[in-house]
Specification:
The chain is 4% helix and 51% strand. It is mostly beta strands. The chain has two domains: 12-40, no CATH class; 42-138, Thrombin, subunit H, CATH 2.40.10.220. The strands form two sheets. It has a six-stranded antiparallel β-barrel. Strand 9 (107-121) and strand 10 (124-130) form a beta hairpin. The longest helix is centred in the C-terminal third of the chain and has 5 residues, at 97-101. The two termini are 12 Å apart.
């Protein structure tokens, strides 16, 4: 899979803005209590290719597709059962899949976190993982 190396950013744990619609943000505390979501960050429905590496003594590399992404985590679908809750993972999200077809270097988001939940539904496996650190990777493929 060859995840790029380099300096990673730590995800801040304090949210300053809350999302009320896809384009509107309000300062925390100004959003009506009945409309306030309990999650600490907004979730966006995005279907991007994802490569996942289970970080352990025997690393496992998997491929899947995101279902939704937030600044705090990602929810993705896999055809594999080797990830377990609590497992440390590194994942690479392809943010601009069409760039490769045009000859431009692909833009990817490299993240580190932990598996928090696994849902099996309709014969498919869905995995939720935190994003504790991240880095944008934009380099030509070798």
């Amino acid at each position: 899979m060859g995840l790029a190396s380099g300096k990673m950013c730590t995800v801040p744990r304090q949210v300053v803005l809350e999302q009320t619609s896809p384009t509107t943000f309000l300062p925390v505390g100004q959003m009506p209590a009945r409309a306030r979501e309990r999650r600490r960050s907004a979730r966006f429905t995005l279907a991007f290719p994802i490569q996942i590496r289970k970080l352990s003594k025997q690393p496992v590399e998997l491929e899947g597709e995101t279902r939704n992404v937030s600044s705090a985590g990602a929810y993705f679908i896999l055809d594999d059962d080797r990830l377990v809750p609590g497992a440390p993972v590194e994942f690479l999200v392809g943010l601009a899949p069409r760039a490769e077809a045009s000859g431009e270097p692909p833009l990817r988001l490299r993240c580190r976190g932990r598996v928090t939940r696994i849902d099996d539904a309709g014969g498919q496996r869905f995995v939720a993982a935190t994003i504790d650190r991240y880095q944008f990777v934009h380099k030509p493929q070798a």
